[in-house]
Amino acid sequence: AKKGKRPLGGVTKFLSLNLVFAAVIYIAFALIWGDPFWLAVEVGGVGFYGSIAYMAVNQPKDSNEGVILAGIGWFLHPLWDAVLHLYGPGSHVVPRFYGLACISFDI
């Protein structure tokens, strides 16, 4: 790796940006259904995954810890999908086909 350049920096940024995007989509579903409680839950999810993404892209340049953090975020996201949206209390907010598609994509 070049000096001053993160070994997996591009991968980390890509994974982190898409992790936040994957969480933001659920805000749209909560808005469509007009459910203020689930809107708050989904905004919290964006905050959670956004925090992971922020920490990932701000790791030291000579470290691969960022890509590991982004990977942890992607590991947790299908759990969020399954526990909250596919089988859990938020299943009325997200169409079943989307929950399944999102889990499949995440994995």
* Span between termini: 28 Å
Q: In terms of structural class, how would the helical and strand content be classed?
A: mainly alpha
Q: Tell me the β content.
A: under 5%
The global form is: elongated
Whole-number tally of structural domains: 1
Spell out the key features of this protein.
107 residues, mainly alpha, 75% helix
Characterization of the model:
The chain has 107 residues and is mostly helical. The chain has four helices and no strands. Helix 1 (9-33) packs antiparallel against helix 2 and helix 3 packs antiparallel against helix 4. It starts with 8 loop residues before the first helix and ends with a helix. Keywords: Membrane, Transmembrane, Transmembrane helix. The chain crosses the membrane at residues 12-31, 37-55, 67-87.
Topology of this structure?
Elements: H1 9-33, H2 36-57, H3 65-86, H4 96-106
Can you summarize this structure?
By secondary structure, this protein is an all-alpha fold.
